[in-house]
Amino acid sequence: MRTVAVVGTGLIGTSAALALSARGITVHLEDADADAARTAASLGAGTVEEPAGPVDLAVVAVPPALVGKVLADCQRRGLARSYTDVASVKSGPRAEVAALGLDTTHYIGGHPMAGRERSGPLAARADLFEGRPWVLTPTPDTDTETLNAALELVALCGAMPVVMDAAAHDRAVALVSHAPQLLSSLVAARLEHADDTAVRLAGQGVRDVTRIAASDPRMWLDILAANAGMVADILDEVASDLQDTVAALRALEAGDEAMRQGGSAGIEAVMRRGNLGHARIPGKHGAPPTRYETVVVAIGDQPGELGRLFREVARAGVNIEDVAIDHSAGRQVGLVQLSVNPGSVHQLARALAERGWDVRD
Predict the structure, then answer these.
(1) How far is C-alpha 101 from the geometric centre of its chain's CA atoms?
(2) What pairing do the DSSP bridges indicate for beta strands 55-60 and 133-138?
(3) 279: which of 101, 122, 270, 295 lies 20 to 30 Å off by Cα?
(4) SUPFAM superfamilies attached here (predicted)?
(5) Domain map of the chain by residue range?
(6) CATH H-level superfamily of 3-163
(7) Helix residue spans in the chain (DSSP H)
(8) Each residue of 328-350: b (16+ CB within 10 Å) or e?
(9) What is the model's pLDDT at position 302?
């Protein structure tokens, strides 16, 4: 692959263009908003000049509802030898492509499982897809050349290809992406008119649950509208669980001992189901989840403190598997939670304490 056209220079399109350009691919940028394309070009994502002839691959990076229309225009112009898209829903665009009578031999659906809470070309990153799954949904007549072009795109962006049926993909993302987005927003919405004192008590737990609630509603409306039925099915199941959980909590308030025991059993059951579901989420490098232990260190909010801490951990010969920071609302200090293998906990805690770090139990 030597030449690529990216049609749509938002977060995903521009990130793909940056990754390709960094690998020496000539990338031609298009967008209905000419300013967005020029912004992407100024970031080093490619050129806004039209290609002299058909490029090797065109990446249609527009919302799901626009994929068919934009692909039709690209094919009419003979923009590329092969085409793919990066829309987060696959069944709707595939049906529209078929309804428009477009060439499906040289087209393959795609969806990189990566994103950010911010949108637009200025939020783009060349490493956005590194190590992330990139779903490909070929049609029955997608030819080998087109599949290979899409696989090369995925490899150049540092992602991992996953071939799926379009409908199976949509059910999967409804469960692991679209419904969680709405649930995060619903939890965060409880904070909108909450008492200031209550909000100041927010710790890492509520920050984790509501992190993606900062996402752009306009972008998500396009995604959810294209997968509304699948997401509604998931939320119906969640709503049933919520009703059962509310009933269990009400029972805990009851004066009757049998009702309280039933309520306790209901709460324990849903939390154990949560344990089992969480345990199925792939761990580091896609391996089965590993139970790490945490070393907590207090650091001041000054430049270089976190880097200094990481260097000390490296000197101790310990690998950091994950890290989180719990910020204090009242002081210029943070608690850094270093997740490490269980066998390294005492070694690391002792080494850091000996070097003057404030290690917390």
Answers:
(1) 33
(2) unpaired
(3) 295
(4) 6-phosphogluconate dehydrogenase C-terminal domain-like, ACT-like, NAD(P)-binding Rossmann-fold domains
(5) 3-163, 196-284, 293-360
(6) NAD(P)-binding Rossmann-like Domain (3.40.50.720)
(7) 11-22, 34-42, 67-77, 91-99, 144-156, 166-173, 179-189, 196-200, 204-210, 217-226, 228-253, 257-279, 305-315, 345-354
(8) eeeeeebbbbbbbeeebbeebbe
(9) 82
Going by C-alpha positions, the residue among 283, 158, 178, 288 that lies closest to residue 234 is 178
The alpha carbons of the chain give a radius of gyration, in whole angstroms, of 24
CB 2 within 8 A of CB 53: no
User: Which 8-state DSSP code applies to residue 329?
Assistant: S
Topology (CATH level 3) of domain 293-360: Alpha-Beta Plaits (3.30.70)
In sequence order, the 6+-apart residues with CB closer than 8 A to the CB of 300 are 332, 333
Instruction: State the 10-residue block means of pLDDT for the chain, 361 residues long.
Output: 97 97 97 96 97 97 95 97 96 94 96 86 95 94 96 96 95 94 96 91 86 88 91 97 96 89 95 92 66 88 88 92 75 82 91 91 76
Please give the model's pTM, rounded to 2 decimal places: 0.78
Q: Name the residue among 301, 347, 297 with its Cα closest to residue 324.
A: 297
Q: Is 53 exposed, middle or buried (0-12, 13-18, 19+ CB in 10 A)?
A: exposed
Compute how many other C-beta atoms are within 10 angstroms of the C-beta atom of residue 104.
20
Tokens standing for 297? 């260190």
Pairing mode, strands 322-327 and 293-300: unpaired
Task: Give me the pLDDT at residue 48, please.
Answer: 97
Fold agreement between 3-163 and 293-360: no
Kindly state the helix (H) or strand (E) to which residue 335 belongs, with its residue range.
Answer: strand 333-340
Instruction: Please tell me the predicted confidence (pLDDT) of residue 281.
Output: 85
Q: Closest by alpha carbon to 340, among 317, 358, 361, 356?
A: 317
Residue type, 20: L
